[in-house]
């Protein structure tokens, strides 16, 4: 049994590449790295990798993480600039006993020493988004509401599981800001004997619930991934609302060691992609119904409009 699940429609092409690896009895680490690199390299996805939207100083700072569910080894980078595939750097760091999470210049020095590809990740398209945003917010710049981390959980035929994330974080964030994505237990967690989870949304709120670890903990108690995702998301949402009156975007995906999966979200427009031996890579749209979530395959019209919107020509205002 093998399977892979990911946040957001943007993961579909990467999942299609991962499917070939997994269907050939390939490694869950190779499959998840390949899938995330595909997202990082596509310039029209403005929240991950090349073409990711910059911070308030117009610098692209990238975060990524990788976890091996067999060994519980973790590698992570944060506030990384000018390297093409942060997920590959994070995976390399997972082989280190110590110094396995590096930030800023430390992460860049390590990547350089290890021979990873240097690349200016700020695209002309991202510059237009930035300049338009400056004109919209003449008084004080505020981070935008969207923050679409690509997060994945993968299971291979040997029973090995991996989890990984990659993001450029909040658009117009403060320099050095780090969200949940590279933080173990918050943005991701996986244990091959149980399962794994990954999150996307407002990192500052997701971290308050250590949400990915919480989902794995619930699955360890025998809870189905769907129930575990719903319980973790909606209990955290309710706690935040009770304590301070509001909660940010909270969305999660999970898969257990048997290839069963689950999702939950407190927003209206969450999508995810899943692939199993009996299921080709499929994009689903999630709908919240109280404290439960249902999902259905995205229509071809929705899929076409998604790409048209993201690839539409931009003009500076």
From TrEMBL:
- Superkingdom, taxonomy of origin: Bacteria
Matching Pfam families, A to Z? Asparaginase_2 (PF01112)
SUPFAM superfamilies named in the record = N-terminal nucleophile aminohydrolases (Ntn hydrolases)
Task: Please give the name of this protein.
Answer: N(4)-(Beta-N-acetylglucosaminyl)-L-asparaginase
